[in-house]
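Module 6 notes. Inverse folding takes a fixed backbone as the condition and produces residue identities as the prediction. Think of it as a translation problem where the source language is geometry and the target language is the twenty amino acids. Below is one complete input and output pair. Work through it position by position during the lab.
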Protein backbone atom coordinates (compact mmCIF):
# COMPACT_ATOMS: atom_id res chain seq x y z
CA UNK A 1 0.00 0.00 0.00
CA UNK A 2 1.43 3.40 -0.97
CA UNK A 3 1.51 6.22 1.49
CA UNK A 4 -0.83 9.07 0.65
CA UNK A 5 1.89 11.42 1.83
CA UNK A 6 4.65 10.55 -0.63
CA UNK A 7 5.28 11.73 -4.18
CA UNK A 8 2.63 9.38 -5.55
CA UNK A 9 -0.38 7.48 -4.30
CA UNK A 10 -2.60 10.32 -3.06
CA UNK A 11 -6.17 10.93 -4.21
CA UNK A 12 -5.68 12.43 -7.70
CA UNK A 13 -8.63 14.84 -7.40
CA UNK A 14 -8.23 15.86 -3.77
CA UNK A 15 -8.05 19.68 -3.56
CA UNK A 16 -4.58 20.89 -2.78
CA UNK A 17 -3.45 21.54 0.80
CA UNK A 18 -0.01 22.91 0.27
CA UNK A 19 1.18 23.43 3.84
CA UNK A 20 2.91 21.99 5.74
CA UNK A 21 5.35 21.39 2.92
CA UNK A 22 6.83 17.97 2.54
CA UNK A 23 9.14 18.86 -0.35
CA UNK A 24 10.41 22.41 0.30
CA UNK A 25 12.81 22.14 -2.67
CA UNK A 26 9.78 21.80 -4.99
CA UNK A 27 8.18 24.92 -3.55
CA UNK A 28 11.51 26.75 -3.89
CA UNK A 29 11.51 25.85 -7.59
CA UNK A 30 8.00 27.32 -7.95
CA UNK A 31 9.17 30.57 -6.37
CA UNK A 32 12.23 30.73 -8.62
CA UNK A 33 10.06 30.01 -11.67
CA UNK A 34 7.80 32.95 -10.77
CA UNK A 35 10.84 35.22 -10.71
CA UNK A 36 11.82 33.97 -14.18
CA UNK A 37 8.52 35.04 -15.84
CA UNK A 38 8.90 36.49 -19.36
CA UNK A 39 6.86 36.98 -22.52
CA UNK A 40 8.14 36.34 -26.07
CA UNK A 41 7.22 39.72 -27.59
CA UNK A 42 9.53 41.44 -25.10
CA UNK A 43 12.37 40.32 -27.38
CA UNK A 44 12.28 42.41 -30.60
CA UNK A 45 13.22 40.49 -33.74
CA UNK A 46 13.59 43.36 -36.26
CA UNK A 47 17.37 43.10 -36.38
CA UNK A 48 17.11 39.33 -36.69
CA UNK A 49 14.98 39.73 -39.82
CA UNK A 50 17.62 42.04 -41.26
CA UNK A 51 20.38 39.57 -40.30
CA UNK A 52 18.41 36.82 -42.06
CA UNK A 53 18.22 38.77 -45.31
CA UNK A 54 21.62 40.45 -45.29
CA UNK A 55 24.07 38.50 -43.20
CA UNK A 56 23.13 34.84 -42.93
CA UNK A 57 24.18 32.24 -45.52
CA UNK A 58 21.91 29.57 -46.99
CA UNK A 59 23.57 26.97 -44.73
CA UNK A 60 22.86 29.13 -41.70
CA UNK A 61 19.20 29.58 -42.73
CA UNK A 62 18.84 25.83 -43.07
CA UNK A 63 20.50 25.17 -39.72
CA UNK A 64 18.16 27.59 -37.91
CA UNK A 65 15.21 25.82 -39.55
CA UNK A 66 16.45 22.42 -38.36
CA UNK A 67 16.88 23.84 -34.87
CA UNK A 68 13.32 25.21 -34.85
CA UNK A 69 12.06 22.00 -36.47
CA UNK A 70 13.03 20.10 -33.33
CA UNK A 71 12.60 22.70 -30.57
CA UNK A 72 9.13 23.78 -31.59
CA UNK A 73 7.28 20.42 -31.56
CA UNK A 74 9.15 19.30 -28.44
CA UNK A 75 7.60 22.13 -26.44
CA UNK A 76 4.13 20.71 -26.93
CA UNK A 77 5.30 17.10 -26.52
CA UNK A 78 6.81 17.95 -23.15
CA UNK A 79 3.57 19.69 -22.13
CA UNK A 80 1.56 16.59 -23.04
CA UNK A 81 3.94 14.41 -21.09
CA UNK A 82 3.69 16.62 -18.02
CA UNK A 83 -0.08 16.73 -18.03
CA UNK A 84 -0.93 13.23 -19.28
CA UNK A 85 1.88 11.01 -18.04
CA UNK A 86 3.20 12.69 -14.88
CA UNK A 87 0.50 14.87 -13.31
CA UNK A 88 -2.08 12.06 -12.91
CA UNK A 89 0.35 10.01 -10.79
CA UNK A 90 2.40 12.56 -8.91
CA UNK A 91 -0.06 13.70 -6.25
CA UNK A 92 2.09 15.61 -3.74
CA UNK A 93 0.70 19.19 -3.76
CA UNK A 94 3.94 21.14 -4.14
CA UNK A 95 5.07 18.76 -6.91
CA UNK A 96 1.80 19.36 -8.77
CA UNK A 97 2.12 23.09 -8.24
CA UNK A 98 5.50 23.03 -9.97
CA UNK A 99 4.24 20.77 -12.80
CA UNK A 100 1.37 23.20 -13.41
CA UNK A 101 3.80 26.12 -13.48
CA UNK A 102 6.12 24.20 -15.79
CA UNK A 103 3.21 23.42 -18.12
CA UNK A 104 2.58 27.17 -18.41
CA UNK A 105 6.26 27.74 -19.19
CA UNK A 106 6.21 25.07 -21.90
CA UNK A 107 3.11 26.72 -23.39
CA UNK A 108 4.99 30.03 -23.27
CA UNK A 109 7.90 28.37 -25.11
CA UNK A 110 5.47 27.10 -27.76
CA UNK A 111 4.22 30.66 -28.21
CA UNK A 112 7.81 31.95 -28.27
CA UNK A 113 8.84 29.62 -31.10
CA UNK A 114 5.62 30.39 -32.99
CA UNK A 115 6.51 34.08 -32.67
CA UNK A 116 9.99 33.39 -34.06
CA UNK A 117 8.66 31.20 -36.89
CA UNK A 118 6.10 33.77 -37.97
CA UNK A 119 8.47 36.75 -37.66
CA UNK A 120 11.63 35.42 -39.28
CA UNK A 121 11.29 34.58 -42.96
CA UNK A 122 11.82 30.87 -42.32
CA UNK A 123 10.16 28.29 -44.53
CA UNK A 124 7.26 27.49 -42.23
CA UNK A 125 6.23 24.31 -44.06
CA UNK A 126 9.78 23.01 -44.00
CA UNK A 127 10.09 23.71 -40.25
CA UNK A 128 6.82 21.98 -39.39
CA UNK A 129 7.42 19.19 -41.91
CA UNK A 130 10.61 18.04 -40.21
CA UNK A 131 8.67 16.00 -37.71
CA UNK A 132 7.49 13.86 -40.64
CA UNK A 133 10.40 13.94 -43.05
CA UNK A 134 13.72 14.79 -41.38
CA UNK A 135 15.23 11.48 -40.19
CA UNK A 136 17.30 12.91 -37.30
CA UNK A 137 14.42 15.05 -36.00
CA UNK A 138 12.01 12.11 -36.37
CA UNK A 139 14.33 9.77 -34.46
CA UNK A 140 14.61 12.09 -31.45
CA UNK A 141 10.86 12.80 -31.47
CA UNK A 142 10.11 9.05 -31.65
CA UNK A 143 12.41 8.44 -28.67
CA UNK A 144 10.41 10.94 -26.59
CA UNK A 145 7.02 9.92 -27.91
CA UNK A 146 7.54 6.28 -27.03
CA UNK A 147 8.18 7.20 -23.39
CA UNK A 148 4.86 9.06 -23.16
CA UNK A 149 2.97 6.36 -25.02
CA UNK A 150 4.40 3.68 -22.77
CA UNK A 151 2.54 5.34 -19.89
CA UNK A 152 -0.62 6.27 -21.82
CA UNK A 153 -1.21 2.95 -23.57
CA UNK A 154 -0.35 0.51 -20.84
CA UNK A 155 -1.07 2.81 -17.92
CA UNK A 156 1.31 2.39 -15.10
CA UNK A 157 0.66 0.36 -12.01
CA UNK A 158 2.68 2.10 -9.36
CA UNK A 159 2.10 -0.80 -6.98
CA UNK A 160 4.57 -2.85 -8.99
CA UNK A 161 8.30 -2.37 -9.32
CA UNK A 162 7.93 -2.63 -13.10
CA UNK A 163 5.37 0.19 -13.13
CA UNK A 164 7.56 2.37 -10.92
CA UNK A 165 10.53 1.74 -13.19
CA UNK A 166 8.51 2.66 -16.29
CA UNK A 167 7.53 5.88 -14.57
CA UNK A 168 11.14 6.60 -13.68
CA UNK A 169 12.26 6.03 -17.28
CA UNK A 170 9.71 8.60 -18.38
CA UNK A 171 11.03 11.18 -15.90
CA UNK A 172 14.64 10.54 -16.94
CA UNK A 173 13.68 10.67 -20.63
CA UNK A 174 12.02 14.07 -20.35
CA UNK A 175 13.71 15.99 -17.52
CA UNK A 176 17.23 14.67 -18.01
CA UNK A 177 17.50 13.67 -21.67
CA UNK A 178 15.17 16.05 -23.51
CA UNK A 179 15.51 19.06 -21.24
CA UNK A 180 19.03 18.33 -19.99
CA UNK A 181 20.83 16.98 -23.08
CA UNK A 182 18.94 17.56 -26.36
CA UNK A 183 17.99 21.13 -25.48
CA UNK A 184 21.45 22.00 -24.18
CA UNK A 185 22.99 20.91 -27.45
CA UNK A 186 20.53 23.12 -29.37
CA UNK A 187 21.14 26.06 -27.03
CA UNK A 188 24.89 25.77 -27.55
CA UNK A 189 24.43 25.94 -31.31
CA UNK A 190 21.93 28.83 -31.16
CA UNK A 191 24.19 30.85 -28.87
CA UNK A 192 27.06 30.54 -31.35
CA UNK A 193 25.14 33.00 -33.59
CA UNK A 194 25.36 35.64 -30.88
CA UNK A 195 29.11 35.20 -30.69
CA UNK A 196 29.12 36.60 -34.24
CA UNK A 197 26.63 39.31 -33.27
CA UNK A 198 23.83 37.62 -35.21
CA UNK A 199 20.19 36.83 -34.31
CA UNK A 200 20.35 38.68 -31.01
CA UNK A 201 16.57 38.73 -30.53
CA UNK A 202 16.29 34.99 -31.01
CA UNK A 203 19.17 34.53 -28.59
CA UNK A 204 17.44 36.64 -25.96
CA UNK A 205 14.52 34.21 -26.23
CA UNK A 206 16.98 31.31 -26.05
CA UNK A 207 18.46 32.83 -22.85
CA UNK A 208 15.01 32.89 -21.27
CA UNK A 209 14.09 29.40 -22.44
CA UNK A 210 17.45 28.16 -21.17
CA UNK A 211 16.82 29.66 -17.75
CA UNK A 212 13.48 27.85 -17.62
CA UNK A 213 14.89 24.58 -18.90
CA UNK A 214 17.75 24.59 -16.43
CA UNK A 215 15.13 24.93 -13.68
CA UNK A 216 13.06 22.08 -15.20
CA UNK A 217 16.20 19.95 -15.23
CA UNK A 218 17.02 20.86 -11.64
CA UNK A 219 13.47 20.08 -10.53
CA UNK A 220 13.55 16.79 -12.45
CA UNK A 221 16.81 15.68 -10.87
CA UNK A 222 15.44 16.46 -7.39
CA UNK A 223 12.24 14.62 -8.25
CA UNK A 224 14.07 11.55 -9.54
CA UNK A 225 16.39 11.41 -6.53
CA UNK A 226 13.46 11.75 -4.13
CA UNK A 227 11.55 9.07 -6.04
CA UNK A 228 14.50 6.70 -5.70
CA UNK A 229 14.68 7.39 -1.97
CA UNK A 230 10.98 6.73 -1.48
CA UNK A 231 10.91 3.60 -3.65
CA UNK A 232 14.29 1.95 -3.11
CA UNK A 233 13.03 -1.29 -4.69
CA UNK A 234 13.32 0.51 -8.05
CA UNK A 235 17.09 0.89 -7.70
CA UNK A 236 18.25 -2.33 -9.30
CA UNK A 237 21.48 -2.81 -11.24
CA UNK A 238 19.33 -3.68 -14.27
CA UNK A 239 17.56 -0.32 -14.08
CA UNK A 240 20.86 1.54 -13.66
CA UNK A 241 22.04 -0.23 -16.83
CA UNK A 242 18.84 0.70 -18.67
CA UNK A 243 19.16 4.38 -17.74
CA UNK A 244 22.78 4.42 -18.85
CA UNK A 245 21.74 2.84 -22.16
CA UNK A 246 19.00 5.44 -22.62
CA UNK A 247 21.55 8.22 -22.19
CA UNK A 248 24.01 6.54 -24.57
CA UNK A 249 21.23 6.18 -27.14
CA UNK A 250 20.32 9.85 -26.69
CA UNK A 251 23.95 10.86 -27.28
CA UNK A 252 23.96 8.81 -30.50
CA UNK A 253 20.65 10.36 -31.66
CA UNK A 254 21.99 13.82 -30.95
CA UNK A 255 25.20 13.03 -32.83
CA UNK A 256 23.15 12.13 -35.95
CA UNK A 257 21.07 15.28 -35.55
CA UNK A 258 24.12 17.49 -35.18
CA UNK A 259 25.73 15.97 -38.28
CA UNK A 260 22.56 16.85 -40.22
CA UNK A 261 22.51 20.31 -38.64
CA UNK A 262 26.17 20.99 -39.45
CA UNK A 263 27.29 19.06 -42.53
CA UNK A 264 29.99 21.76 -42.76
CA UNK A 265 31.24 23.89 -39.87
CA UNK A 266 29.52 27.26 -39.58
CA UNK A 267 30.05 30.12 -37.14
CA UNK A 268 33.09 28.35 -35.72
CA UNK A 269 30.94 25.38 -34.73
CA UNK A 270 31.27 21.90 -36.16
CA UNK A 271 29.21 18.75 -35.54
CA UNK A 272 32.32 17.21 -33.99
CA UNK A 273 32.71 20.05 -31.50
CA UNK A 274 29.04 20.10 -30.63
CA UNK A 275 28.99 16.33 -30.13
CA UNK A 276 32.00 16.54 -27.81
CA UNK A 277 29.96 19.06 -25.81
CA UNK A 278 26.99 16.65 -25.81
CA UNK A 279 29.20 13.92 -24.33
CA UNK A 280 30.42 16.35 -21.67
CA UNK A 281 26.83 17.29 -20.80
CA UNK A 282 25.74 13.61 -20.79
CA UNK A 283 28.46 12.85 -18.24
CA UNK A 284 27.17 15.61 -15.98
CA UNK A 285 23.65 14.16 -16.25
CA UNK A 286 24.88 10.64 -15.47
CA UNK A 287 26.64 11.99 -12.40
CA UNK A 288 23.52 13.87 -11.31
CA UNK A 289 21.66 10.55 -11.45
CA UNK A 290 24.40 8.92 -9.36
CA UNK A 291 25.42 6.67 -12.25
CA UNK A 292 28.98 7.88 -12.84
CA UNK A 293 30.45 9.41 -16.00
CA UNK A 294 30.61 7.40 -19.21
CA UNK A 295 32.50 9.52 -21.71
CA UNK A 296 35.00 11.36 -19.50
CA UNK A 297 34.85 14.31 -21.84
CA UNK A 298 36.04 17.79 -20.94
CA UNK A 299 33.99 20.81 -21.97
CA UNK A 300 35.16 21.79 -25.47
CA UNK A 301 33.04 24.97 -25.45
CA UNK A 302 34.58 26.97 -22.66
CA UNK A 303 32.80 30.13 -23.74
CA UNK A 304 29.49 28.52 -22.89
CA UNK A 305 30.38 28.12 -19.22
CA UNK A 306 28.88 31.45 -18.24
CA UNK A 307 25.89 31.24 -20.57
CA UNK A 308 24.81 27.69 -19.82
CA UNK A 309 26.51 26.14 -16.84
CA UNK A 310 26.00 28.88 -14.29
CA UNK A 311 22.21 28.83 -14.03
CA UNK A 312 22.41 25.17 -13.07
CA UNK A 313 24.52 25.91 -10.08
CA UNK A 314 21.68 27.51 -8.18
CA UNK A 315 21.60 25.18 -5.24
CA UNK A 316 18.08 24.21 -4.44
CA UNK A 317 19.27 21.66 -1.94
CA UNK A 318 19.80 24.61 0.38
CA UNK A 319 16.11 25.47 0.34
CA UNK A 320 14.99 23.76 3.48
CA UNK A 321 12.18 24.26 5.95
CA UNK A 322 14.13 27.09 7.52
CA UNK A 323 13.52 29.36 4.54
CA UNK A 324 10.04 28.09 3.70
CA UNK A 325 8.56 27.67 7.12
CA UNK A 326 5.57 25.45 7.61
CA UNK A 327 2.36 27.44 7.21
CA UNK A 328 4.17 30.65 6.40
CA UNK A 329 4.45 31.14 2.67
CA UNK A 330 6.97 33.86 1.95
CA UNK A 331 5.56 34.98 -1.39
FE1 LIG B 1 10.41 24.19 -22.90
FE1 LIG C 1 11.10 22.32 -20.21
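Target side of the pair, the amino acids:
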Amino acid sequence: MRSAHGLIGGDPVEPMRLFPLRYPWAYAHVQQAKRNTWFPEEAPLHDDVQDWHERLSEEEHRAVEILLGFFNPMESMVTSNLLLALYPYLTAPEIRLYLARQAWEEANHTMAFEYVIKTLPVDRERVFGMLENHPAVMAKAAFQRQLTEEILQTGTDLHTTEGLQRFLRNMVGFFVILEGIFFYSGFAFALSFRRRNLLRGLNTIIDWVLKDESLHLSFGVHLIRTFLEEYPEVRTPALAGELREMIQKAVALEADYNRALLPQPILGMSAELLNAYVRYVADRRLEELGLGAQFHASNPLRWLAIEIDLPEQVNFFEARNVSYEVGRPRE
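Reference fact for the lab report: Confidence is low (pLDDT under 50) at residues 311-331.
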